[in-house]
Amino acid sequence: MSAQVKETVIQFGEGGFLRGFVDYFFHKLQEKGLYDGKIVVVQPIERGMCQMLADQNCEYNLFLRGIENGQVVNEHTHVTSISRALNPYTQYEEYIALATSPDLRVLVSNTTEAGIEYLGTEKLTDMPPKSYPAKLTQFLYKRFQAGLKGMILLPCELIDNNADNLKACVLKYADLWELGDEFKNWIETENDFCNTLVDRIVTGYPRDEVEELTKQIGYTDNLIDTAEIFHLWVIGGHHEDELPFNKAGYNIVWTDDVKPYKKRKVRILNGGHTSMVLGAYLYGLETVGECLKDETVRSYLEKCLFDEIVPTLGNSDTDVKFAKDVLERFSNPFIKHMLLSIALNSVSKFQVRVLPTILEYKEKFGKYPVALTFSMASLIAFYRTDKANDGEEIMSFMKTASVEEIMKREDYWHADLTDMIPMVQEYYDLIQEKGMAEAYKVVLEK
């Protein structure tokens, strides 16, 4: 590391998502002269890509592709925001020394949904401890002992209240290791644990087109990353003064409450996916891109989004715009998103992503929404095939049970759906007797 490099960000995680999202934003801040500081990447588990990063001077190429405002966008960036990459399993001293750096101010992480966990088996003296929260507690305690100020923590793990959960784990380790009330008070008052919501489809290393992209950049890059152009980062905090993402023109939202943004994303983007894919597969399609090119399936998705999901959320301009963006994202010619991969564990996905809209729509408008209720019938029909991929018990039950028996499984749906049975039965019979093409026609005419 050269003397003039100022390291201000520590990042737990070196995978494609952070490199296609956070590291790109910091690169752009530096490029625009709005930020002075580099990222130190820390490998959160024993096996990882820190050595690959180090071998390339921590530089890599990112290709952002998609449709924005009706235009195809293909943006290439040579990302240089990372100063170095450390593996705490082999470079522990270098890693822990970072805690005593006064320049360090921001902490970012993406250690997968399972990464934020309290094991309770590690020791303060472990070099390093196993779990990410234990590593973090050890790191923050070292910082506290050095008399330094706290940090802005931006966990990007895809779980509800990611920062609240992370902080709770840190405080548990503080108790386990008997680090004292003064340290716990410093955690609470000097550090800002910000809940976040991240939204960008990062497709990672482009195996299918790596030869073509290598020709374009003129040399071999083992860490080429690809992602869609769309991005949204909602952060439960207010640090634009230190991290001027908005000034740089990026879709980063500073807010007191991440929840409404999460609801919008889950209901529109994830709910749109889940309500569309199972019927579309039975109709004979294989990818999301094919769905958007097919007039019937696209019309069905638009009915779900604009006639049922968005009105339930309140029909604000923001909701409508987000739904229009989702249509553009689903139409992205650069992303080959297989319907069967989205169909994984559809019962639990339906319960979280689609069912709340169905029930709220009924409460709001006095009747069940046609297209989304039809998607429940499609789900049942799909689980009759050999393509369902879910827990063993769920698959064997769904394959043979009647519509009524399925609808009465409150342990699946977390709600009493008896009222919906006649309508779902009608659509299910229609799919079985007339086929999916005819069934779509009936639903689109209602």
Task: Note down, in words, how this protein is organized.
By secondary structure, this protein is of the alpha/beta class. Helices cover 48% and strands 14% of the residues. The strands form three sheets. The protein has a six-stranded parallel beta sheet, sandwiched between helices. A three-stranded mixed beta sheet has the order 4-3-10. It has a three-stranded mixed beta sheet with strand order 9-11-12, with helices on one face. β3 and β4 form a beta hairpin. α5 packs across α6, α9 packs across α14 and α16 packs across α20.
Largest beta-sheet details: 6 strands, parallel
In DSSP terms (H or I, runs of 4 or more residues), the helix count works out at: 21
Give the amount of beta strand, in percent.
5-15%
Low-confidence stretches: none
Main β-sheet, spatial strand arrangement: 5-2-1-6-7-8
Taking Cα atoms only, what radius of gyration do you get, to the nearest Å? 24 Å
Keywords:
single chain, 446 residues, alpha/beta, 6-stranded parallel β-sheet, 3-stranded mixed β-sheet, 21 helices, 48% helix
Short description:
With 446 residues, the chain is of the alpha/beta class. It is built from 21 helices and 12 strands. The protein has helices at 16-20, 22-31, 50-55, 92-97, 132-145, 162-176, 181-190, 210-217, 259-283, 288-293, 295-313, 317-330, 339-342, 346-353, 355-365, 370-382, 392-400, 403-407, 410-413, 421-434, 436-445; strands at 7-12, 38-42, 60-68, 71-79, 82-86, 106-109, 152-155, 192-193, 196-199, 225-228, 232-236, 252-255.
Secondary structure layout plus pairing:
Elements: E1 7-12, H1 16-20, H2 22-31, E2 38-42, H3 50-55, E3 60-68, E4 71-79, E5 82-86, H4 92-97, E6 106-109, H5 132-145, E7 152-155, H6 162-176, H7 181-190, E8 192-193, E9 196-199, H8 210-217, E10 225-228, E11 232-236, E12 252-255, H9 259-283, H10 288-293, H11 295-313, H12 317-330, H13 339-342, H14 346-353, H15 355-365, H16 370-382, H17 392-400, H18 403-407, H19 410-413, H20 421-434, H21 436-445
Parallel strand pairs: 1-2, 1-6, 2-5, 3-10, 6-7, 7-8, 11-12
Antiparallel strand pairs: 3-4, 9-11
Helix pairs in contact: 5-6, 9-11, 9-12, 9-14, 9-16, 11-12, 11-15, 11-21, 16-20, 20-21
